Amino acid sequence: MPERPHVILSAAMSLDGHLDDTTPDRLMLSDDADFDRVDALRAASDAIMVGAETIRRDDPRLVIRDPERRADRVRRGLAEHPVKVTVTGAGALDPEARFFTTGGHKLVYCADAAVPTQADRLATVPDTEVVAAGALVDFPGILADLKRRGIERLMVEGGSSLHTRFLAEDLADEIHLAIAPFFVGDDQAPRFVRAAEFPQNARHRMTLAETRPIGDLVFVRYVIESGSGS
Q: How many structural domains are present in the chain?
């Protein structure tokens, strides 16, 4: 198994496991204190990954908000913001999305067939690379490439399909969850993970490493013991 970064899956979800609802407006699951926790985790990461659907749906910036944290990274010889990474099969990403117009270096991993189209769409976006990731998007291959680029700690912020792939393929080391005290109650709303055959099951339980309240949320951190850890 090729070496890979230490992978942390990060999400906020409702009590019934939803990342959002189905309304046009973004569902606010976290509070300011939890946003600050996420900002600190970003600042401690070498790269942040989201899926293409998250870029289309949420238009995230994925930058460090706290100027002191940015300054501390620069003092340590790091870029002001972590590398931003996304993965897409079809390659239809908008160059005007905030993922591309903010922050520093961007990596776009595409299915091989989508590389020419996506490279053309992003040709005018500064500091952005489009990288072939295999016919069906090879996640171990992506992680091996990130490791070769010096990425030691990767934060994965969703969405459902990415979290599912990392867990089902046994490629994650930790899960950080903030759980909001309400239900969404909509089977059509996106969940933390989709249906899959997970190696983290009743016979192979994860290790509870931390729990603490954050306002009216509960933060939970699990460590995943697997044969594919970094």
A: 1
Is residue 64 within 8 Å of residue 70, measured between CB atoms?
Answer: yes
CB count, 10 Å around CB of 79? Answer: 13
β-pair type (207-214, 83-88) = unpaired
Question: 16-44: per-residue pLDDT in tens?
Answer: 999 999 999 989 999 999 999 999 999 99
Domain around 64: 6-223
CATH number at residue 136: 3.40.430.10
Assess contact for 172 and 140: CB atoms under 8 A: no
* pLDDT tens-digit map of 87-118: 998 878 999 999 999 999 999 999 999 999 99
- pLDDT average, residue stretch 160-181: 98
DSSP for 1-46, please give it: -----EEEEEEEE-TTSBS--SSSSPP----HHHHHHHHHHHHT-S
- Can you give the pTM of this predicted structure? 0.95
